[in-house]
């Protein structure tokens, strides 16, 4: 497999005219999405996520810069080539966007009809897709008879009908309860691993990123403020925006009342240390008393598993001579991120 990205944004800017004002939705985006990845784009409302995804299938023109798919700059393509391009890109939506007047079968068959597949081939393909998403028994139901999770599974089957290489999922689980969200995310992961489809997940929920993404880009006010492997971004978020998103999943950093309570109850120095390679941190801590005359107590923390690795933070109270605590904090900084919490 080549290293060239499947989707690449090069210095992409997108502005909209809003009355007499110009709104900059995307501001100098550089982003690479590689074949075979589940790549999440996370950001708050208005960050530019939907605009970004609409540039991937050229539903909107860029204002400047280029968007390359498989090495082709799609910003210069004519309508006919764009139609071909869009056949290779499936999309699913927050509100499912199913045709209410058609059955599940009819909805999934629809893109095949548009693409000119004959009736028999359509039938075989739809049956195969419904089997894959676990809805064979619902083929003759109408969307209104389905639960939210089932509707999204129909959406996924329809998006995959023409065998796209890319699936764009725009807030695809935001209308679903947590349990159904899990089901849909597991199905998307299967789409990725079993069918080899590259998935771009647009979300404002870090839990979605944790659950299925390999890589993530954090979008803030039209700019990519951070991007990388999900594990790295969770372990060492570099911007406040990212840190806030990570917090929503890990709940591992005391703040507000929790922090006040800890400060009132513990007189030693409070530090929060990132857990990643726990053995190295364990080694530093187990030598704390012997090396520096410092005792430690774990007073707060949360650890989750991400891609098979423990990730999270522990808050420690360190008690001992000032110089010893300083030396221990310095040792900890060698192996992980450390934040002082003492006011
Ligand atoms: N067609 C449009 N005309 C004018 N402004 C637009 C248009 N589309 C988007 N914008 C503006 O661009 C900015 C980014 O919007 P976008 O919908 O991409 O953000 P988002 O991150 O997807 O937010 P949300 O999660 O709320 O959908 C916002 O300020 C929005 O108001």
Automatic annotation (TrEMBL):
Protein purpose: Part of the ABC transporter FtsEX involved in cellular division. Has ATPase activity.
Quaternary structure annotation from Swiss-Prot or TrEMBL: Homodimer. Forms a membrane-associated complex with FtsX.
Taxonomic classification: Bacteria, Bacillati, Actinomycetota, Actinomycetes, Pseudonocardiales
Domain ABC transporter positions: 7-246
Residues spanning the signal sequence: none
Record-given protein name: ATP-binding cassette domain-containing protein
Similarity annotation: Belongs to the ABC transporter superfamily.
PROSITE patterns, alphabetized: ABC_TRANSPORTER_1, ABC_TRANSPORTER_2
Keywords: Amino-acid transport, ATP-binding, Cell membrane, Membrane, Nucleotide-binding, Translocase, Transport
Cellular component GO terms, alphabetical: plasma membrane
A molecular function (GO) term: ATP binding
GO BP: amino acid transport
